[in-house]
């Protein structure tokens, strides 16, 4: 007997489940309900349509309702909002845009409602046109406004992925753009010192970035919008984009009596079943298990949503499958840089009290002697005893995506820093180095675990600069640019002949540009009887933007 499967939401998870289920079961009756006009659209590509990087609007529409109907024999009902679920009756209530209301029964129900943009109750927010970026209709409205009104200034409230991408694309149109972020950094999956690299880059690109300041009120003026910040600063903008974050769409599930998790998402098991075994849920609306910490998490990402849709379809079709969890692998383009993260960041590990060690490496994206090589910065977080990789972040102009993906694969399989060393990665001068940046991150982490070097992190040193003896082992030219105040300059090649200038009874911190010469200096000093030595992790390249940026 064929199953009747209803799917609420037709974007990533919902569309993926429908297409996969049809491939496995030709007889199933599959109906998708979508309250909007579009299904299966490229929501991650929406900001790039604003600037014209993506100039074909149709390219954003991955699959259209008529295509789903003709190719997969799936009944797609757009402009149809599911307003209630009746679990006991195994039925839903649907309201069409025309106002018509009807019920539809089901054998299996899949919830894929996604997440909605946050719209906090800030005074004046209802008096202005504060635009959001969730679907094609939203981006059409923004694009039309930009084309017709030709605004000169824009304010983006929120410095997450969507906020940064919108700010970049508004800036690309020649609009004077301000990002307002309440936190001390953009892009929350990164730790502060990695985000600081982005801060410096955005300032250099002419973007106005306001950190640690939130919106107090909005006011509509004759020309544009007046935004008053908590600090009292005022920002004038012709257009305002809200990109503060998203919250799971749980209204249907909650009213149906389904269990909601502590974080506010729909609670599901490893088979993605809700508390009602006939109702599954996928995508941004659910709580997932973080595979690194084991804790529940809200991780609204397209990749996991599509995988979840596929797994649910497998289960409905009678296959043995389960969702093992999410690690939050994500990447964003920020002008000329890319910033990516996977696994746990240090903020999360500190909050949960999970023991960890940290290394920073700043390698070349490919062989330094081949033209076009640029710096690629990696922060690696790992267990200080067994070397298990807990998380990583990478920022750079080239090669960030493949390096974070390499590390993500190791994390997924509970690998260690030794696995990073042993990865046999493709090498040719235009693409990498014989010692790939991922291998180098593993080598540095091993040195820390083995005790071949003791590290000091930038935030530790910034608090105790007067209590330690700091030695700058860079070259004279590097020293002339900028240096840590109070440090003694001894180039690495002169260190052995100038050991008498260093105190035996005081803690010594050595630093260089990226940490490598600091490591060499550490090994020299330790083997010459100096016992209180530490190397500044990541060197000046990590320290400077974090402390002075």
TrEMBL record:
Can you give the residue ranges of the Rhodanese domain? Answer: 464-549
Q: Which UniProt keywords apply?
A: FAD, Flavoprotein, Oxidoreductase
The cofactor required is: FAD
At the top level, the lineage of the source is: Bacteria
**GO MF term set:** CoA-disulfide reductase (NADPH) activity
Q: What is its EC number?
A: 1.8.1.14
Q: Which Pfam families match?
A: Pyr_redox_2, Pyr_redox_dim, Rhodanese
Signal peptide range equals none
List the PANTHER family.
Answer: PYRIDINE NUCLEOTIDE-DISULFIDE OXIDOREDUCTASE DOMAIN-CONTAINING
Instruction: Write out the similarity annotation.
Output: Belongs to the class-III pyridine nucleotide-disulfide oxidoreductase family.
- What is the protein's name according to its record? CoA-disulfide reductase
Q: What is the lineage of its organism?
A: Bacteria, Bacillati, Bacillota, Clostridia, Eubacteriales
- Which gene is this protein's source? cdr
């Amino acid at each position: 007997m064929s199953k009747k499967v209803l799917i609420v939401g037709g974007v990533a998870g919902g569309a993926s489940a429908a297409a996969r289920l049809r491939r496995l079961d030709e007889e199933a009756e599959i109906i998708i309900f979508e309250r909007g006009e579009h299904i299966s659209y490229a929501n991650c590509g929406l900001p790039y349509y604003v600037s014209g990087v993506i100039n074909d609007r149709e390219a954003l529409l991955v699959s259209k309702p008529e295509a789903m109907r003709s190719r997969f024999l799936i009944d797609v009902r757009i402009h149809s909002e599911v307003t209630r679920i009746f679990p006991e009756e195994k039925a839903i209530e649907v309201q069409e845009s025309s106002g018509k209301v009807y019920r539809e029964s089901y054998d299996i129900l899949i919830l894929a409602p996604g997440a909605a943009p946050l719209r906090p109750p800030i005074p004046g927010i209802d008096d202005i046109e504060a635009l959001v970026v969730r679907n094609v209709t939203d981006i059409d409205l923004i694009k039309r406004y930009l084309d017709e009104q030709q605004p000169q200034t824009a304010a983006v409230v929120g410095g997450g992925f969507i906020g940064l991408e919108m700010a970049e694309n508004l800036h690309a149109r020649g609009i004077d753009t301000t990002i307002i972020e309440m936190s001390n950094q953009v892009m929350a999956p990164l730790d502060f010192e990695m985000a600081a690299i982005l801060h410096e880059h955005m300032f250099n690109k002419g973007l106005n970035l306001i950190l640690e300041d939130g919106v107090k009120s909005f006011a509509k003026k004759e020309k544009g919008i007046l935004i008053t910040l908590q600090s009292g600063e005022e920002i004038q903008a012709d257009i305002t984009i809200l990109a503060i974050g998203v919250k799971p769409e749980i209204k249907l599930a909650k009213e149906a009596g389904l269990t909601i998790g502590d974080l506010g998402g729909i609670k599901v098991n490893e088979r993605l079943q809700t508390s009602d075994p006939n109702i599954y849920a996928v995508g941004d609306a659910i709580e997932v298990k973080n595979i690194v910490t084991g804790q529940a998490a809200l991780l609204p990402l397209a990749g996991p949503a599509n995988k979840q849709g596929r797994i649910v379809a497998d289960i409905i079709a009678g296959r043995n499958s389960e969702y093992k969890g999410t690690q939050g692998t994500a990447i964003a383009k920020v002008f000329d840089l890319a910033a990516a993260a996977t696994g746990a960041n240090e903020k999360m590990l500190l909050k949960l009290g999970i023991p960890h060690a940290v290394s920073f490496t700043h390698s070349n994206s490919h062989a330094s002697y081949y033209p076009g090589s640029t710096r690629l910065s990696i922060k690696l977080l790992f267990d200080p005893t067994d070397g298990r990789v807990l998380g990583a972040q990478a920022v750079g102009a080239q090669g960030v995506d493949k390096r974070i993906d390499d590390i993500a694969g190791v994390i997924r399989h509970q690998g260690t820093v030794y696995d990073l060393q042993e990865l046999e990665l493709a090498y040719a001068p235009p693409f990498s180095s014989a010692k790939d940046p991922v291998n180098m991150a593993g080598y540095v982490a091993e040195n820390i675990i083995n005790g071949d070097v003791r590290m000091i992190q930038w935030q530790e040193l910034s608090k105790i600069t007067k209590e330690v003896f700091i030695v700058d082992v860079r070259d004279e030219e590097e020293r002339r640019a900028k240096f840590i105040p109070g440090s003694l300059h001894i180039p690495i090649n002169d260190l052995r002949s100038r050991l008498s200038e260093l105190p035996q009874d005081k803690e010594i911190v050595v630093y260089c540009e990226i940490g490598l010469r600091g490591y060499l200096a550490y090994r020299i000093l330790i083997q010459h009887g100096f016992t209180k030595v530490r190397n500044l992790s990541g060197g000046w390249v990590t320290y400077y933007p974090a402390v002075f940026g």
